[in-house]
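Q: For a teaching session next week I want to show students how multiple molecules come together into a single three-dimensional assembly. I've collected the sequence lines for a complex. Could you give me the predicted structure tokens for the whole thing so I can convert them for display?
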Amino acid sequence: MRKLLFETLFRRPFTERAPSSDDAAVTELATAVGHAARRRLGRSLSIREVDAGSCNGCELEIHALNNGYYDVERFGLRFVASPRHADVLMVTGPVTKNMREALARTYHAVPNPKWVVAIGDCARDGGCFAGSYAVVGGVSEVVPVDLHIHGCPPTPTAMLKGLLALLEQADTAAVAP
Amino acid sequence: MTSLIDRILEGREILQRRPWPRAMVGAHLWRFVANELAQGHLSLLGLWGEPSMVHMAIMDEDTAEIAIVSLDCPDGSYASIGRLHPPALRLERTVHDLFGLSAQGLPDTRPWLDHDNWGVRFPLGDRIDALSKSAPYRFLPVEGEGLNQIAVGPVHAGIIEPGHFRFTASGETVVRLEQRLGYTHKGIEGLMSGADLERAVQLAGRVSGDSTVAYAFAFSRAAEAALELVVPDRAVFLRALLAELERLANHLGDIGAICNDASFTLIHAHCSVLRESVLRAALNAFGHRLMRDVITPGGVTRDLNDDGKAIIRATLDNIRLRFPVLVELYDNTASLQDRTVDTGVLKPALARQYAAGGYVGRASGRSFDARRALAYPPYDSLRFEVPVLKEGDVNARVWIRVREIEQSLSLIDQILDRLPEGPSSTPVGRWREPSEGMAIVEGFRGDVLVWLRLLDGLIERCHLRDPSWFQWPLLEAAIEGNIVADFPLCNKSFNCSYSGHDL
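A: Of course. Below is the structure for the complete assembly, covering every listed component.
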């Protein structure tokens, strides 16, 4: 173990430069974030992830955000275990009818101010599962959504861009008078 | 000597043989099969419904012979298999939820996937209105002094899929775990009916995100079996390459995640970097990190060029350099071994009874691997070993993954060396006659089964059976007697699919 740790002292870190925030996301968010809310949060957001019926593809890529290449925590973005600790609810999947209530309850458990980020094509409108007897549809059918990130699944870079835009919104407002 | 499967099929009209025989049976023979399953002479590969028929896929473990037996249920009922052979219990509850067919004698008639939220009952059979008053789900009763219950989920603490676990504990020790699943039920089999092949393979690739290659592979092979379509050699090899890359990425991720659940984050950090390297190679070589929508009926949609080959080779070289160090670290860290050795033991008898596939089965003495036992191309011409252990603990499931990573590295080398030239797909063409096909493909988690019937160029019925169906119940058994705090560790070492199971 010592050898492995020692090596990492001399190796270049895997972590890559941050991508620039997504323009489309900035526009979508401009209307979503209240000034007072932004001031309180500063440059840090706690994220609670909820799988509302996804195929698990989006979860795999959300996991990747934590690996050495993307290292999402360096931006002050942190995944937390309880909705009570969260500022952001990150939701994947077409919302299944069997998950509708759990998603709504989780949303209500997040204290204000809060944002909802819908991850993936299914979370927008149900994707290829839309129209099924067991599917409600997109996340916005159940809880208000502030930001959509496309993809099936979105790449970690796409998610990072969207989250950085969210962070920027929170940040600029925090220093504004 | 005639085999058991031959005796069952003897004198029956074989309706289709693509590639395995399917025959209609009467109630008497259906019960005979149930008895043979219960006595361990046969393994259950799947049990699924149609509006007035039930099908059961069975296998003779010794000869790897497979057959499908079908029973007409004009009065909406059939003799329960689960009554004698518990692995069928959840499948029969599901057949009732979706089709309204009831299994006579089924000891557990609680709904399984139907949580009374759909607005209809029996959505794939003769639909009726939902119950006007919904009844709460009855968990199994627990009696005893000093027992306490812990309810977890459907929303879990980590970034994972939803499901409910009801623990009954005596102090720290788990006396019983009862699972309740179905939260991610999307009605995929309903969406399949009436879909064309293009949409159907897209849906198949979204049954379980981590096995998108395996599902597209199994679906395509089933469709090709139905259409008697021969896929070009190059596509056959490229499909195996995709499947092995998927296995590699998932096993690397799993080993890291298991160590992480034992609070050993160093291996997790390094494994996730290696996993990421595989996904990036996949993106470069096939245009998608998870290799989604690459395999379709007829072949593959993306051919591999020299750059892609070079990137995959470089990725493999790097894994060969870095992975053994992590394995050594795993093996030599006493605090980690203390958590994984003798934890969550799955007895070989149970693995055999449930015909558990993948690392769950192979860590508990069941050697079945569809690549070897069914030897579908190109695996019939590739050299590889199937690692098997008997201990059945978390540690054994880690080691099976380690060994399988080594085998996948070797398989990818062989595939790249021998990749045939030529086209990478063949046109599917048009067809009208009804025809059926089935395929079993070894995903990273175990054997994925797809059965389908085509009619007029569309899917009439398609059933997709995830390996998790026969692994989830075993997790309930493996956790018994362990401490609650070891559940994440045991759960991760099984890594069953919620979405693949819930469909």
